[in-house]
Write a structure and sequence with these properties.
By secondary structure, the chain is mainly alpha-helical. It has three helices and two strands. A two-stranded antiparallel sheet has the order 1-2. Helix 2 packs antiparallel against helix 3. 6% of the residues are buried.
């Protein structure tokens, strides 16, 4: 959300005797940046499961039948599930953040249109 001072460039109150005060305007930028960050995290996690599998493959072939390897396999499976769940959460979060931006934009438009009969600061009375 951005605080806008006046009607000009958004940094100073309007000149003249009629002062509007401060207005709040929605910006979907933060929502969309957060969604992009969640997408990047999801993409960053994509190769991790394969890398984990390759690391364990070499370990399993060289160690024989040690009982610790069975435990290691269980730990690996647990991490694979966690990585997959994190990817799913990131994707879901990105979708929800984009939806929040869309809804906020619609809400702003609905509020704006509901005030069409209200005199706007700086306009001559009709």
């Amino acid at each position: 959300m951005t605080v806008v001072h006046g009607l000009g460039d958004g940094t100073a109150p309007p000149s003249g005797g009629d002062h509007c005060g401060r207005r709040l305007e929605h910006s979907d930028g933060p929502w969309l940046r957060a969604a992009g960050g969640a997408d990047e995290l999801r993409a960053h996690l994509a190769p991790v499961r394969q890398e984990l599998g390759l690391a364990h493959q070499g370990l399993m072939s060289g160690a024989g039948r040690l009982t610790a390897l069975a435990e290691l396999a269980a730990v690996r499976e647990s991490w694979e599930r966690r990585i997959q769940a994190a990817q799913g959460e990131c994707g879901s979060l990105a979708d929800k953040l984009r939806e929040a931006a869309r809804i906020q934009g619609g809400t702003n438009e609905a509020v704006r249109s509901s005030f069409t009969s209200v005199r706007v600061c700086g306009e001559d009375e009709r």
